[in-house]
Amino acid sequence: MKITCDVIQDLLPLYVDDAVSEDSRILVEGHLKDCDICRKEEEQLRAGQGAFENLKEAYPREEAEVIASFLKVRRSILRKRILAVCAALACTLVLLRAGHYFYSEKKDYLSLEESGLVMRGDELYATKTYYGRLAGIVSPDQKITFLFCYETPEIRKSYPSAPCDLMVTDYRKPFQMTDEELKENDKVRIEKVYYLPENFDFKDAYKASDYESENADEAAKKTEMLESISTLLWDVENGAAEIQEG
Ligand SMILES: [Zn+2]
Asked: What is the CA(24)–ligand 1 centre distance, in A?
């Protein structure tokens, strides 16, 4: 029986998925060796598959699996209509992306009180679960740090807030340095700790790298601006500022 390209191309999606029997695999590989047309077809299928492998890296596992299973089905049924698949996939991605945004990325700011953060002497304590919530910016001169906390639905679900009493950082001994290391690195010691207000721009905080790449004058201006809107928690000369926690 002469194997036609049609037969091979029907088998290709399964072949690319590694879901064919040994006999079919040998059959397909034998044909691919001599047939440019089918090899092209195989390349296209593999390129499609590669795109989904990339997605797995770009998206959390559950989403990648949804996309992958969606694709597998689609690819088998609409082998010759890859464009249609791509269009459908683009829609799916937009929806998943939006869902992901509201689940994982939309950040609800926590006020200092809600954050449960407190300074005691030179030590920053968390009196509530801070896992996944605590974020901060450090000024380019490494002397001032601006903390803030936020939650996403995903964080609330994964790490429900509960009372605790954990030391987060000792600002006299930041970065877990020994006394000797501290002496050598005295210039990089944090001198002030602030808590950022709600009205500051989250996106701004995540552009900290831009902040660092700005020239010194610009950076100093930005630091000054952030200081003017934030609550001072601690400074190296006076220790903890008198705020809350009696
Ligand atoms: Zn062929």
From this structure: 14
